[in-house]
UniProtKB/TrEMBL annotation:
Protein name: FAD-binding PCMH-type domain-containing protein
Homology family: Belongs to the oxygen-dependent FAD-linked oxidoreductase family.
InterPro entries: BBE, FAD-bd_PCMH, FAD-bd_PCMH-like_sf, FAD-bd_PCMH_sub1, FAD-bd_PCMH_sub2, FAD-linked_Oxidoreductase, Oxid_FAD_bind_N, Oxy_OxRdtase_FAD_BS
Organism: Talaromyces pinophilus (Penicillium pinophilum)
Coiled coil: none
């Protein structure tokens, strides 16, 4: 590890590729990257920032060296957007701050704070929560910039809708506050721009919600694979009018203790009493198709238990290839997704359908995020051995090729622009976003969207058919 001094900041912690020992550099480059399918991309240096001053100093160093800046919050992006050739990578893992204003139900958190860290404190000390990422170790930075498909998104809306302000270090190294009235274009972009945001968020100002007094409760129905169509048709039919504090998901996965692929339909409700929870979940219990392998009704649950389950489904030290699509509302969704759900290439892989109605049917606030449908579908292809790389990636590619014609777009968070591009925003939002990027970062100092060859630069993504 080498240390360097800048006129703006003494003792900035920098690991330079050409002078650090190999193990130190490699740990700084990918040690905090969740996906163990490591990229062959190599930053000039990694700055381990622990303050806003460090972030500003790192940007000024990049200006001095005439190179780009990349940013890592939680290290959970499947495509590893933070690791870029010939860049200075600002790793925010050591920059963790959280302040809570209980009276006004607000939190101020740095980007590397994870959903589990945030909610662990909010729930235990204040009886509050924030609908962060489902995986416990996802950092707030990437999650919120992409929009934030958080807990109960189908009813509570996108997590980025609860962002009241962001503090940002610009491509020139200046610290600015962004709100609906201060630097409103950057505030607009911060809610849905994803990895193309033309600055570095140093703090999110978040609106909180009470943690349900009754905690979480869940009902689950596990069906054999031959009942896939029946189970899927059923859950789609009951979703539109279902309780508005209940998250609904259908998952295809292999059973832990057998080689049988099964279909889980899960309802997680967040209510203030057991009776309210029972009333919320009873419709599913009364209308479920017969033939479950296993089932449970209104079981006591918690956010902590859900984090444990999510962590188990998304294990560390594994290789990942993910993709997703919003399926057209007029499509025969179970038919379109049948191969995706019934031909998983590895025992640890899974596919999900996530109910978005009624959130998908309402007018969104004025923000960059603008792509959604009733049906969110994603593949999480998980494996351990490098020898399976080609087979698992090919399976994802082949499935998405079949699904594309029935898709209206995709969610940034589960995408890899190097492999496939589609629509990520409404056309007008995409044009506005790319103009904001050029205004705030005309030289492309901040690494933007990682496409094939990393050549998008200041032009950004084409958003499917959009120029």
């Amino acid at each position: 590890m080498t240390m360097t001094a800048l006129s703006t900041k003494k003792d900035l912690q920098i690991i330079w590729r050409d002078s650090a020992d190999k193990a130190t550099y490699e740990d700084a480059r990918v040690g905090r990257v969740f996906n163990h399918r490591r990229p062959h991309r190599f930053p000039l240096a990694v700055v381990k920032a622990s303050s806003v001053d460090d972030i500003q100093a790192a940007v000024k160093l990049a200006i001095e060296k005439n190179c780009r800046v990349a940013v890592r919050s939680g290290g959970h992006s499947w495509a590893v957007w933070s690791v870029r050739d010939q860049s200075i990578l600002i790793d925010l893992g050591n920059y963790k701050e959280l302040e809570v204003d209980e009276e006004n139900r607000l939190a101020r958190a740095t980007p590397s704070v994870t959903g589990k860290e945030l909610n662990g404190r909010l729930i235990s000390e204040y009886g509050l929560m924030f609908p962060g990422g489902h995986c416990p170790d996802v950092g707030l930075g990437g999650f919120l910039l992409q929009g934030g498909m958080g807990w109960n998104c189908r009813n509570w809306g996108w997590a980025c809708e609860r962002v009241r302000a962001v503090d940002v270090v610009t491509a020139r190294g200046e610290l600015v506050r962004c709100t609906p009235v201060e630097n409103p274009d950057l505030y607009w972009a911060a809610r849905g721009a994803g990895p193309g945001f033309p600055g570095i968020v140093t703090k999110f100002h978040l609106e909180l919600t009470p943690y349900p007094a009754g905690g979480f409760r869940s009902s689950g129905y596990i069906y054999p694979r031959h009942m896939y169509r029946e189970a899927f048709d059923w859950v789609i039919s009951i979703t539109p009018g279902f309780d508005q504090d209940t998250e609904i998901v259908l998952v295809s996965k292999y059973a832990e203790d057998s080689d049988e692929l099964c279909i889980l339909v899960l309802f997680v409700t967040m209510k203030n009493s057991p009776k309210e929870a029972e009333n919320a979940l009873i419709t599913a219990q009364e209308t479920r198709p017969k033939g479950c392998i296993d089932e449970w009704f209104c079981q006591i649950d918690s956010l902590e238990n859900q984090y444990i389950a999510q962590g188990k489904a998304n294990p560390d030290h594994h290789r990942y290839c993910c993709d997703n699509a919003y399926i057209d509302n007029s499509a025969n969704v179970p038919a379109v997704l049948e191969d995706a759900f019934l031909t998983l290439p590895h025992r640890k892989a899974f596919a999900i359908w996530y109910a978005m109605n009624p959130c998908s049917r309402r007018k969104l606030p004025d923000m960059a995020l603008s792509m959604q449908s009733d049906h969110y579908f994603a593949l999480y292809t998980v494996w351990e051995d490098e020898v399976d790389d080609e087979r698992c990636q090919k399976w994802v590619h082949d499935i998405m090729k079949k699904v594309e014609s029935h898709s209206v777009g995709a969610y940034l968070g589960d995408s890899d622009f190097q492999v496939r591009q589609t629509r990520y925003w409404a056309d007008e939002n995409a044009k506005r976003l790319m103009n904001i990027r050029r205004k705030w970062d005309p030289q492309g100092r901040i690494c933007g969207y990682l496409d094939a060859g990393d050549v998008s630069g200041v032009d950004g993504l084409s958003n499917g058919s959009s120029p």
